[in-house]
Automatic annotation (TrEMBL):
It comes from the Bacteria. It comes from Lentibacillus kapialis. This is DUF1788 domain-containing protein.
Amino acid sequence: MRTINERLDEILPRITDPSFRENKGLGNEIGYHIFDYEPEDEMLVRERVKFIKDSVNNDASDQNIIEFDLYEVVLNILENKGYLQKNFDMEQKKGSNFILNATRKSLRLTLNNDLVIKYIADRVQDNDIVFITGVGKAFPIIRSHVILNNLHKAVGENPVVMFFPGRYDGQELVLFGEIKDENYYRAFQLIDY
């Protein structure tokens, strides 16, 4: 099994390869990719994501990486709606479980007007490679399979890479190596072990 650094070193060549932009698997599946990693490697992965993003975006090519940190997206949406401080106040009064459910409802997760998906859709351009980060930070408000199942509405044909602190075996997402998400079969492993 390769080290996290060896796997991280392969991301930049992989996503800049012209075949990656074609965004199709053997059966013309949508181009979703998951880079899974041990949760204790989170800070290393964050640093490398920044490096990869800067490398691609500062290159003279027509490629661009746009990153969506799910936790930051949630905070931005709540702030823009005027709900963020209200959420803090309500959590003090009614507890974390109450505010978790209220936050999910206010984000309209999984509905046709899902605010997280709309936030992403409003910012993605045709030539973008979409990086989804902050999966662990956004849990349990947002579950990764919910984003993957609904993201096609936002990104169309753009390739997507989700950085996932846990395990993905091609069928099942296990956040932090412990919390099983619903099965998700349409994503490819970005870099094998």
